[in-house]
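User: Please fill in residues for this 298-position structure.
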């Protein structure tokens, strides 16, 4: 990032409509909305194929070098990227529609079905939401894996049916074997959702999956990693990248909230006023809690 061109941060956001354009028909001033913080060109091949999250001309909030984010008093975007919040969902919960949509996108890519077993690496915001979306989609066993014991404790009460704290000295093969044994996963889970980006988690996930299973890479880490490609090939694993959210993901996230099949309230650890935004960043950086919100300027 160019220090001479400071960037306004923020992409997980909700707000109240202040003004609408002449052509807007679905929203009015005063409506409370969740904000999808990126809009595409609508004309390229990806957009026309319904995969607008892959649009090369995407305008996304807080995306360097010139696209400012949502942490400000006013933010302008197209009508169809604002989602009216139902009366049962408040603005704080509306902020979390964005990471919930990431979890929805990952789960839809995995095509999770009723009765399947799912292992999720990472028990942060996205990992926890992947667990609750998998549960809403009918997964049987939902096992969360993380090195943070307090987060595992939280997600076990939030949505997961089990959790596993890896032993640091164990090899990826040993960790995969232990998870299978502890939770009687037999050949392994049907789906692995990887929400950390850590190389060792990718390794364990591939070792863990059953033959013909599905691996979704949701977390971002190093640009290049080593993983057991022979195991991936021999087990004929389907491995997919996962980037943000696409057509229908925000709509489904809103439905899950409105129908109470998913709740995000317990993820919110604390809320800081706009004037204390730097304190919120520091709290997040330290790894305290699950989700820290910043209430925007009035």
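Assistant: Residues filled in for all 298 positions:
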């Amino acid at each position: 990032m160019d220090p001479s061109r400071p960037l306004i941060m923020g992409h997980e956001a909700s707000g109240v409509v202040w003004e609408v354009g002449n052509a807007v028909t679905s929203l009015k001033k005063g409506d409370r909305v969740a904000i999808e913080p990126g809009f595409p060109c609508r004309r390229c091949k990806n957009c026309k194929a319904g995969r607008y999250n892959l649009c090369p001309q995407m305008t996304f909030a807080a995306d360097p070098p010139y696209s400012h984010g949502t942490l400000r008093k006013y933010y302008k975007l197209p009508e169809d990227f604002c989602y009216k919040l139902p009366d049962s969902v408040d603005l704080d919960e509306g902020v979390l529609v964005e990471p919930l949509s990431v979890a929805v996108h990952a789960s839809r890519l995995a095509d999770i079905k009723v009765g399947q077993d799912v292992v999720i690496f990472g028990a942060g915001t996205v990992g926890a939401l992947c667990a609750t979306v998998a549960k809403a989609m009918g997964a049987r066993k939902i096992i969360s894996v993380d090195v943070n014991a307090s987060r595992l404790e939280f997600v076990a009460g939030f949505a997961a049916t089990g959790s596993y704290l890896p032993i640091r000295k164990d090899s990826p093969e040993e960790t995969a074997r232990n998870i299978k044994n502890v939770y009687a996963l037999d050949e392994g889970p049907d789906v692995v959702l990887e929400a950390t980006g850590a190389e060792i988690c990718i390794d364990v996930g591939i070792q863990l999956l059953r033959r013909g299973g599905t691996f979704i890479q949701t977390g971002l880490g190093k640009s290049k990693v080593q993983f057991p490609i022979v195991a991936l090939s021999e087990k004929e694993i389907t491995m997919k990248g996962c980037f943000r959210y696409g057509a229908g993901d925000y709509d489904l996230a809103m439905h899950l909230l409105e129908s109470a099949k998913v709740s995000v309230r317990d993820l919110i650890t604390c809320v800081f006023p706009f004037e204390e935004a730097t304190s919120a960043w520091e709290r997040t950086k330290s790894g305290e809690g699950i989700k820290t919100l910043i209430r925007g300027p009035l």
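For context: The domain at 1-95 is CATH 3.90.180.10 (Quinone Oxidoreductase; Chain A, domain 1).
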